[in-house]
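Ligand: zinc ion. Inputs:
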Amino acid sequence: MRSEPGGSGPAAGGAPLPHGGEPADATDPALETVRPGQPTPGRAARVGPGADEGLADPDDAGRRQRYELWMRRALEIAVTGPDTAATADDIPVGAVLYGPDGAELATGRNERELTGDPTAHAEVLALRRAAERLGRWRLDGCTLVVTLEPCTMCAGALVLARVSTVVFGAWEPKTGAAGSLWDVLRDRRLNHRPEVYGGVLETETAAVLRAFFR
Ligand SMILES: [Zn+2]
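Predicted complex:
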């Protein structure tokens, strides 16, 4: 079982990480300008603790409002489950995929215990369902909203699906691959990098997970 998420992630602004080191894969010189906790160069998206400062920009007020609304929907999925009955054993993580027009395309809730499938994470399920619905694997222009920072598998799947924007709630310092432990989503060696917004409704999303692990 995982430990409680929602703790503090790496320091923002390029400050040294706790324990005196950075993730091993971030020491590559090619990654020099993409340290976890820093915004993607040249883009508006921000990630890392304090990232909501970027979202709080008046110019982005409408976007922030929309992401919070979508996050509430993801929280609803986390708590109640989408199509299948939520099980008490599965960590309550919910994901929703929105199309370029803002229409809800698919939802997913972590079903690892329910299905015995190690890949049945909320994000993967939402991606699969949306791709099935649209009849294609490319999900350009889409936004994936998830209540917990994606793991390496889900971050990889989001890149492969060409999702344009990733919005997540609670930080996951132990396994997070969107800025905490790795930054798979914004690795400059990849030619597709989604915009990332972290810590949206962080208090609410972390509370749901805390209640589960209590
Ligand atoms: Zn995952």
